[in-house]
């Protein structure tokens, strides 16, 4: 059902945890829907130097959060904003059709974190 | 890695004795049980024997057993078949009573009936997942023709008060008939249509003696693969005199009720599986399975904080232990266990394709966010103490890890 890559990220997620000194934080989803994703960003000169995530959700939600942290690390915030849901799904080697909304959630949480960063400036 | 299977409500392995009984019916006794020649007769001997075995278990006549492809077909035959037959007799404006926690094989045919003008009442359940027989009494209307209540719930394992419901229906039918008999022929109109009682016993057969006579059941559905028999075969008990319109036409098998060549190997397997459920054997296996479940519950209690047991052990099959692990999403738990070789199931939305949390858990009053974190363990007669201890040993760190990753769980 899931690609090897999804299972790898699910078992050993990258950049997972809390960040106490984040420059910005963004959260999306709801417990009633079963998925919540939270992104922590550290930004220096518009470049995302560090990123962490916390996720409640299915394997696809966890794996897509993890893969997204890899994709945004080292990117400028504008570059990060350009990452699409489809790019993330491709990066994961595809997702089962009913799971597609899980990947949107990570992207939305990331966007909220970037908005949060921009609001502060 | 030794794999551990704790999903016996989904399906069970075919018992070795069942498999042995089936084997001759593939290549040796391969005849069509409807053929007159000796090849056919050999196959018929097998299906006849199985019919008696099923009838003995259900405590009904062999002619009241119809072989089907499984409980889904039996459920469809019960609901659509009864309504169709009554409609042909000119009965109009019919009413069905069922429960909100039925399997989709009952709920969807009911919804289909709604589209044809039938009224359906969906009974609620108590917090333990069981229907209250009193609710059935209250829901009965003058035009009620069918009550369909499952014998045991597949998700949490709650046992329904089938005999109590059966008695309520029987008394109601007797009263109605008596009133009719006591009314002058000129004034009383057509003889009243009784209420027929159907029960989907798929999840119960393995653990409860489903005696249709003792429990006043008119129709019953079951599948072989939930009782260590083969997949793709089941039975439909229909009491003599209950009107049923067949759903498929063709070869006139089963008194025209269910056309289609007899699945003789499967039917023989069903018979061989049901024989193993004689009272003594069943009690012995129930005890063994209940002991393993109690071990699972006490191990989880000891090793996993904040775990909620949704199964009411005082009123459930001995095999079910349905849990919520708040903070750890069910599908993630299922998948993490699967990567350790352990098979369970979940009522989480994310596993269902429909993205909706289990209707059974919601009906029991469990909050959606808790329903998303549920895991169903269903034990079988081959599970060992080592299996159970291994499962909890693997499960505890998985729950801990997922809770730690959760941004909204109070760690």
From TrEMBL, chain A:
Q: What is this protein called?
A: Iron-sulfur cluster assembly scaffold protein
Q: Which Gene3D superfamilies match?
A: 3.90.1010.10
Q: Where in the numbering of this chain does the NIF system FeS cluster assembly NifU N-terminal domain appear? A: 1-120
- What species is this protein from? Candidatus Falkowbacteria bacterium RIFOXYD2_FULL_34_120
The record's section on InterPro entries has:
NIF_FeS_clus_asmbl_NifU_N
A single GO molecular function term of this UniProt record: iron ion binding
Q: Which GO terms describe its biological process?
A: iron-sulfur cluster assembly
TrEMBL record, chain B:
Q: Which UniProt keywords apply?
A: Iron, Iron-sulfur, Metal-binding, Pyridoxal phosphate, Transferase
Give the protein name, as stated in the record: cysteine desulfurase
Q: Which reaction does it catalyse?
A: (sulfur carrier)-H + L-cysteine = (sulfur carrier)-SH + L-alanine
Instruction: Record the organism.
Output: Candidatus Falkowbacteria bacterium RIFOXYD2_FULL_34_120
Enzyme Commission number(s) of this protein: 2.8.1.7
- Residue span, Aminotransferase class V domain: 4-173, 195-389
| Cofactor names | pyridoxal 5'-phosphate
Q: InterPro entries of this UniProt entry? A: Aminotrans_V_dom, Aminotrans_V_PyrdxlP_BS, Cysteine_dSase, PyrdxlP-dep_Trfase, PyrdxlP-dep_Trfase_major, PyrdxlP-dep_Trfase_small
PROSITE patterns, alphabetically? AA_TRANSFER_CLASS_5
| PANTHER family registered for this protein in UniProt | CYSTEINE DESULFURASE, CYSTEINE DESULFURYLASE FAMILY MEMBER
Q: Name one Pfam family in it.
A: Aminotran_5
Please indicate which superkingdom the organism of origin belongs to: Bacteria
SUPFAM superfamilies annotated for this entry?
Answer: PLP-dependent transferases
Q: What class of enzyme is it?
A: transferase
Q: Give one GO molecular function term.
A: cysteine desulfurase activity
Q: Which family does it belong to?
A: Belongs to the class-V pyridoxal-phosphate-dependent aminotransferase family. NifS/IscS subfamily.
């Amino acid at each position: 059902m899931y690609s090897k890559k999804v299972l790898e990220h699910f078992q050993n997620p990258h950049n997972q945890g809390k960040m106490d000194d984040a420059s910005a934080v963004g959260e999306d989803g709801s417990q009633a829907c079963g998925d919540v994703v939270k992104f922590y960003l550290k930004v220096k000169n518009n470049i995302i130097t560090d990123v962490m995530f916390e996720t409640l959700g299915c394997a696809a939600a966890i794996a897509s959060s993890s893969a997204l942290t890899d994709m945004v690390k080292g990117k400028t915030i504008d570059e990060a904003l350009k990452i699409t849901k489809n790019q993330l799904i491709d990066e994961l080697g595809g997702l089962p059709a009913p799971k597609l909304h899980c990947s949107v959630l990570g992207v939305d949480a990331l966007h909220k974190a970037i908005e949060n960063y921009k609001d502060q400036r | 890695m030794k794999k551990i299977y704790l999903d016996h409500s989904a399906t069970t392995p075919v018992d070795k004795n069942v498999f042995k009984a089936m084997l001759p019916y593939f290549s040796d006794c391969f005849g069509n049980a409807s053929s007159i020649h000796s090849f056919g007769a050999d196959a018929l001997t097998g299906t006849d024997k199985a019919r008696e075995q099923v009838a003995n278990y259900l405590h009904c006549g062999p002619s009241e057993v119809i072989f089907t492809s499984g409980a889904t077909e039996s459920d469809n035959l019960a609901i659509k078949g009864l309504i169709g037959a009554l409609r042909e007799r000119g009965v109009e404006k019919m009413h069905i009573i069922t429960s909100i926690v039925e399997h989709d094989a009952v709920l969807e045919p009911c919804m289909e009936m709604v589209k044809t003008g039938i009224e359906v009442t969906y009974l609620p359940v108590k917090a333990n997942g069981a229907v209250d027989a009193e609710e059935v009494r209250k829901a009965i209307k003058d035009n009620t023709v069918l009550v369909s209540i499952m014998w045991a719930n597949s998700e949490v394992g709650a046992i329904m008060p089938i005999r109590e419901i059966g008695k309520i229906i029987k008394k109601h039918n007797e009263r109605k008939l008596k009133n009719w008999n006591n009314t002058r022929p000129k004034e009383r109109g057509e003889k009243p249509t009784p209420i027929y009682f159907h029960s989907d016993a798929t999840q119960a057969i393995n653990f409860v003696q489903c005696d249709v006579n003792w429990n006043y059941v008119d129709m019953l559905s079951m599948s072989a693969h939930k009782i260590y028999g083969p997949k793709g075969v089941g039975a439909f008990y229909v009491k003599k005199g209950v009107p049923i319109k067949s759903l498929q036409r063709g070869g006139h098998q089963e008194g025209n009720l269910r056309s289609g060549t007899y699945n003789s190997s499967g039917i023989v397997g069903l018979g061989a599986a049901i024989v193993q459920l004689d009272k003594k054997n069943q009690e012995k296996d129930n005890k063994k399975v209940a002991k393993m479940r109690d071990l699972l519950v006490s191990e989880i209690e000891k090793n996993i904080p904040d775990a909620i047991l949704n199964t009411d052990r005082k009123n459930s099959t001995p095999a079910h232990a349905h849990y919520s692990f708040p903070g750890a999403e069910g599908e993630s738990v299922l998948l993490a266990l699967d990567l350790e070789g352990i098979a369970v199931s979940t009522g989480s939305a994310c596993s269902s394709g429909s993205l909706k949390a289990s209707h059974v858990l919601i009906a029991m009053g469990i909050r959606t966010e808790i329903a998303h974190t549920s895991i169903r363990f269903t034990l079988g007669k081959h599970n060992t103490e080592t299996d159970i201890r291994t499962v909890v040993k693997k499960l505890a760190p998985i729950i801990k890890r997922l809770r730690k990753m959760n941004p909204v769980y109070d760690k």
